[in-house]
Structures are given as structure tokens and as C-alpha cells.
Amino acid sequence: MKLVFFGTPADAVPSLEALHAAGHEIALVVTQPDKRRGRGSDETPSPVREAAEALGLPVRTPAKSREVVGDGAAACAELGVVVAFGQLLPPALLGAIPNGFVNVHFSLLPRWRGAAPVERAVLAGDRETGVCIMALEEGLDTGAVYARERTPIGAQETAGELRARLV
Fold first, then answer.
1. Distance of CA 51 to CAs 10, 65, 75, 91, 108, Å?
2. 32-64, pLDDT tens digit by residue?
3. Distances (CA, A) of 58 to 43, 65, 113
4. Could you tell me how far CA 63 lies from the centroid of its own chain?
5. How many CA atoms lie within 13 A of 165 on its CB side?
6. pTM exceeds 0.85 for this model
7. CA-to-CA distance for 56 and 49, rounded, in angstroms?
8. What's the rounded Cα separation, in Å, for the pair 59 and 56?
9. d(Cα 127, Cα 156) in Å, to the nearest integer?
10. 110 preceded by cis ω (within 30°)?
């Protein structure tokens, strides 16, 4: 299947690599622009950009997702995949891909919509969480859930440890 992939942090890299390894044609990878990280003044690419370039995939780094509406349509992809991209996608972009977009969300929806769902589950003392594959719509994490995988949260488990299991 021909895809476009939107993601930014290290948490999104395993999904990108799995899609590539499964033989899907990834026509375009979109990630956040390079940023200054740490004490140095050098700009560093996102983990997704580094992974995509290592795989030989075309990458765009727009400041705003609306800048890639034309690229999304030109890619002739059948489906868009979003994993922790960090920006909302505008309606024009959502409509540019024939079968729309799916989102990998690291919580059991609808409990923790939006940013930092893993941290919020741990801080709230939830006993379980999971990963949902859902339809991406204009609203924030409001689309239909296609698949859900549950996992317990250990009594002493940190958000970092839990996230490592979820990705």
C-alpha cells in the first residue's frame, strides 16, 4: 500500500520502520523542522527525519502542516499514517488522501485525548493503558477506534518505561 507518514519523536520511529519493513511504499515522510536541542547551537533533525533518510525516503519538514497539502495529494498515497506528529492536520490535508488518515495513539481512548497521554495515565494512577489505532478527523482524537491493545501499568512503572513498551 502506498502511504504518507507523519511523525516526529523517537516514539514514532518503530512504526515508520515497521511499515517500511512490511513492504509498504512510503511516498513521503513529514516531520517537524530541525530544532536546537541541548546546549549546543546546532540544529538537530527529528528522530523520524533521521530514520526516514536512513531508509532513503523523501522527507518534508514544514513549519505548518498546511504547507504540505499539495505534497500529500501529489504523493498519490492511498492512506496517511500519523504517529506523534505534533501538529493538527488541516481539513484540506485530511481530504487529500483518498482513504484518509489513521493515527497511532498511546492511550485507551477516549480516556486521555491529546498530548502526553502516557504521562497522564501514570500520574492519574491508572491500572491499565494501551495503544489505539484510530481514524484521524478534524477534532482532537475523536475518530473511530479501529483497534485497541491493552496493557497493565506496573505499580512502580515510570512513563518512560511504559512508553518504551507501547511503541
1. 9, 20, 19, 28, 27
2. 998 876 676 688 999 999 999 999 999 999 999
3. 19, 16, 30
4. 16
5. 16
6. yes
7. 10
8. 9
9. 11
10. yes
